[in-house]
Amino acid sequence: MIPGCVPWPAETARRHRELGLWTGQTLDVLLRAHGERTALVSGGVRRTYRELADRAARLAAGFHDLGVRRGDRVIVQLPNTPDLIDTLFALLTLGAPPVLALPPHRRDEIGHLAAHTEAVAYVIPAVHQGFDHRELAREISGPKHVVVAGEPGEFTPLSSLYAEPADLERPEPGDVALFLLSGGTTGRSKLIPRTHDDYLCNLRLSAANARLGPDDVYLAALPIAHNYALGCPGVLGTLHAGGSVVLTPTPSPDDAFPLIESERVTVTGLVPSLALLWTEAASWSSYDLSSLRLVQLGGASVSPELARDVGERLGRVQQSFGMAEGLLSQSPPDDSPELLATAQGRPLSEHDEVRIVNEAGDDLPTGEVGELLVRGPYTIRGYFRAEEHNARAFTADGFFRTGDLARRTETGHLVICGRVKDVINRGGDKVPAEEVEEHLLAHPHVRAAAVVPVPDPYLGERTCAYVVARGGPPTSRDIDTFMRERGVAAYKIPDRVVVVPSLPLTPVGKVDKARLRSETP
Ligand code: AMP
């Protein structure tokens, strides 16, 4: 275990193994079972499981030659491409956990990840969506190696790393396999260490619940760097089942629909904003989408209307509520149409211990809304190198405080009712309010700031920043430019900036965000 990770108590780990929840395998096993079947389709590229396994072995050897060793962290910021799949499996094979950054992350986020993980390497595309990642890499200190998929400039080309496969030291099933980024937290993104054992459990349960088999074809519409499209069941769950993964350059119907028709895609996962776009497009599109047998909806609040609409126009819905920290609650295959539209599924494992508690931490009866706490075989026991935060985010006996508000139904389903954490869920992209406020407070013309969600018909929520000016009031454009210059990902830049004379306070003197939310026109 890498220092700074919180292991499961030995007795709990032993029970998970005994129960077969943890199978004692490592994630690279996913490429070993299905030989000549098609594993990956992307543009003109079609690769079998055997080819993927060969490429991963060669690339693992190349990373090893570069000096990357078991336990080293490697920041990976690649879009959904075959390079990402190769890199992921190479690092999983090597036991050097990839730190999965999202493609929109910029200097501020990557700099933080580099410092916090002491990553030895940073893997990037040359240019993605018009942005030159090599320029970003030049501004990041820490990682000894920058590896570029594409034209490398002064850095190491990814293509040069495919070496002769070598007999390398192997990771243990209890080792950290990968680091995911937390969406919902105070301050900066926390790092979520997922072990081979626990993540395999995660994707196996999710693949089984979705009834994935070798004939399934999964379209990765959302970023694979995100837990939802990576392992819920996503890319890795599909490979576990022996199915094929199809990558699309963008999730827009223009790119995705032709692929659904030509590859006979059976399963995909969408966030609500994308599902809205797809259902609209499906009504005029002439592409044949009839192969879709399951459309997952999740990542953000899903209205019953949208769930019904997706069910009618795209394919059977599966609601998915989950988090990179672990717990997954997904619709079982036999859910009634009513539950499919109104509930966010059921926790995947009977060993997921779910509590709904009031503010005092007392358990609430079925049907009452409170904060959702969870402990289980694939829910972490602590963030990486975050002792102080862990003391607040986890109970003394290891339950994770999700920050989500939920109620449980008599049928054991969860219905998500909001959240207590100070995060804006912008169409599935999580914007931590406190982090944005810190940036705003650094602006010379901002004395005080509070960021709150405002409802949005398309994204579900957008961000609104209330600011108290110091001197001349800043405009939205000033804030936009300022935050970009600070190297912040674009999705965190406030959608609206409202200048106010003062911020309302609660009786204990904290900013009254509830009032700001309710007063936002
Ligand atoms: P992430 O770790 O980025 O996947 O974000 C997890 C958070 O997204 C959860 O804690 C929820 O706040 C939110 N979330 C995920 N799925 C849903 C859903 N189906 N409905 C409402 N919120 C969701």
TrEMBL record:
UniProt domain AMP-binding enzyme C-terminal: residue ranges = 435-510
Q: Which protein are we looking at?
A: 2,3-dihydroxybenzoate-AMP ligase
Q: Name one GO biological process term.
A: fatty acid metabolic process
User: Residues in domain AMP-dependent synthetase/ligase?
Assistant: 32-384
Is Iron found in the keyword set? no
Mind telling me which residue stretches traverse the membrane in this protein?
none
Q: Which PROSITE patterns match?
A: AMP_BINDING
Gene3D superfamilies referenced in this protein's UniProt entry, alphabetically: 3.30.300.30, 3.40.50.980, Luciferase, Domain 3
PANTHER family on file = ACYL-COA SYNTHETASE, MEDIUM-CHAIN ACYL-COA LIGASE ACSF2, MITOCHONDRIAL
For this chain, the family text in UniProt reads:
Belongs to the ATP-dependent AMP-binding enzyme family.
- What lineage, starting at the top, does this entry show? Bacteria, Bacillati, Actinomycetota, Actinomycetes, Streptosporangiales
Task: Show the GO MF annotations.
Answer: medium-chain fatty acid-CoA ligase activity
Pfam families per record: AMP-binding, AMP-binding_C
Keywords carried by this UniProt record? Ligase
